[in-house]
Design brief:
Shape: elongated
Low-confidence stretches: 68-72, 216-220
Strand content: 5-15%
Oligomer: single chain
Radius of gyration: 28 Å
Structural class: alpha+beta
């Protein structure tokens, strides 16, 4: 069961949750910790806040224990999708802190589920290389691995969502140091955005056209 400690910090009351996940191969205890600030919680009374934190801690502990690799894991073994629940919690916390909007959180969650979740279900974090990221964008545009092809707009939405996930893995989890999707561009439809070229008539075609128009005007 998760351990919860309530303490007063510089930002007010906070709750530190610790989950114990056994020991590693060297006998060292594996502990995962997370902090919830009272100002980010839904409830306002001490009892209600503690109950809310307990529910969050229980769900988080269950999620951690479902992971293929426990804490202390390396990025080459940690499954990418196993971090999605924590990423979504991080997004919600940023929304409550007015860093991003609630609608942005909803869009990121929707777009990752619709475009990314199934595609990356068998990928570890380190397995998503720059080449894989590039292929993902290409596959969205061509429909390979998907049930349909996607427009540049939909591909852009997917790219924004997964960029946010990797920002979380880098900045919050410190699991990796580089985003494989950084600097990635989306190929546009070559048929769109092209200016139509006007065909110029040759001198012979021009005179033939004028003759046809004169004949039609004269009723001939």
């Amino acid at each position: 069961m998760a351990h919860i400690n309530r303490y007063m910090g510089k930002d007010g009351v906070s709750y530190r949750v610790r989950v114990f996940l056994g020991s590693d191969k060297n006998g060292k205890q594996i502990v995962k910790s997370r902090t919830y600030k009272a100002k980010d919680l839904t409830h306002s009374t001490a009892a209600a806040m503690l109950s809310e934190v307990e529910k969050k801690a229980e769900a988080w502990e269950a999620e951690l224990k479902r992971r293929p690799v426990k804490t202390g894991e390396r990025a080459d073994k940690a499954m990418l999708n196993s971090f999605v629940p924590e990423w979504q919690d991080w997004l919600i916390a940023r929304s409550r802190a007015n860093i991003i909007s609630e609608s942005t959180v909803a869009y990121y969650k929707r777009d990752y589920k619709n475009y990314c979740s199934s595609y990356f279900e068998n990928y570890t974090v380190e397995g998503v290389t720059h080449a894989v990221a590039k292929k993902f964008i290409s596959d969205m545009r061509t429909g390979v691995g998907f049930k349909r092809t996607y427009s540049p707009k939909s591909t852009s939405h997917a790219l924004t969502a997964i960029n946010s996930l990797f920002a979380f893995l880098i900045d919050e989890k410190q699991l990796i140091t580089a985003n494989p999707f950084a600097g990635m561009t989306i190929p546009r439809d070559k048929s769109k955005g092209k200016k139509r070229r006007t065909k110029s008539l040759t001198q012979e075609e021009f005179y033939a056209l004028m003759k046809a128009l004169d004949s039609e005007y004269d009723g001939k």
